[in-house]
Design a protein that fits this description.
Layout: E1 2-7, E2 13-20, E3 23-30, H1 68-80, E4 89-93, H2 99-111, H3 120-133, H4 139-151, H5 161-167, H6 171-188, H7 205-216, H8 220-253, E5 258-265, E6 292-298, E7 302-308, H9 316-329, E8 337-342, H10 352-363, E9 369-374, H11 383-396
Parallel strand pairs: 5-8, 8-9
Antiparallel strand pairs: 1-2, 1-4, 2-3, 5-6, 6-7
Helix pairs in contact: 2-4, 3-4, 3-5, 7-8
Length: 401
Amino acid sequence: MFMSWTQRPSRSFANAYFGQSNDKVTKKYNIKDFKSKRTDRRPNKVKERSEFSAEKLSTYQLYTLGGNHLRTAMQNLAKEAYLDEIRNVQIHLYFGLNEQEAMTVSNSHNGTQAYLKPTFQDTVYQALKLKEANKTSSLPASVAQMLSEIEMKEVAKESVGTIVSVANYGQVNMKLYNLLVTKFQQKNGSFKSIPQNTSRFSECTICSLIKKSLSETKDKQVRSGLLEQRNKHLWQQRSERQKYYKHQMKSKREPSKYISIIMDAMDQNKTMIPHFNKPPKSTDGMWKLKTHLLAAKVHGVGIYGFFDIFQWAHGSNLTITALFNILNIMKDSLPEVLYLQMDNCGRENKNRYVIAFLCLLVELGIFRKVKLSFLMKGHTHEDIDQLFSRFIKNVLGQWIT
């Protein structure tokens, strides 16, 4: 059931039409009745269909689900001029809607209008509302339905993983997300969406092959199998990443018991010397000295960097030497458990020499336990890479010779 109501904002009367099936009953109401403060005019709530009465329309409190901009614009125009040709607006009046049904109505309304595409922030906000309203139902399915209504096309629940992941953030991560949104909107405006695919790194081979296969087939059964395979793959890498985050938190909360270190090398093409913020023409084809940076981030303690100009081979010896120097600096405050995170490079990290050195640390009693971890290939980029990004951004504006 809905109400079609022709509104005259600045006139003394409003015509209301009560519609059920094909029957229409015309009623007249004084517009002042909607603003009355009399006790018998206070807003009533309608919970059941049988409770609604067109005679009591002026006593109901109305909430606008869509068309706010049009209503505001018309009210402002009505104050400035007498414009009969634009005063009549047809609306649909609903009652007894729960929060998700109200969201469906508003999204359907937006789909019939010329409107800006919802930003990533908007979809996350609506996903949070769905999560609060439907605690027992599947959030991915609810978000997919919501996006289908907004975009006027079918959206698979397997494609809304990023939105659902953000909506499921804990209190601490949600505060960080809100801070990110605030800073992004201050810089770019509230109508620009936060980009979700900004990585400059190469994509995981498995992810790339599954995406390619999905784009080449429309068979529902095949697509379902591919999506299930992709979800298992992403669940596995997400689980391993969460383990790394857990090690970080343990080292920060109990530094007397745990230490967490991540080590990685920076792209050497960005650290060649000389470096110019705006290279002169005379430097075209100039020979440059290759410079290598191996960095380690000790969570809750500090950052350590080791530069070389390729005077040594880049292998397990270099990795072990850097790790030994870090532990030597911290020798007076080493805890009993070491968590070490590295990438999958077999030459430098994932080899018997590095593992033998870590076993020696336990054998000598320096640590009671050492845990060496590697994220899945293609999903290894972490906070250490953000450190490199900040470093190179600072270097880009300088001349280094």
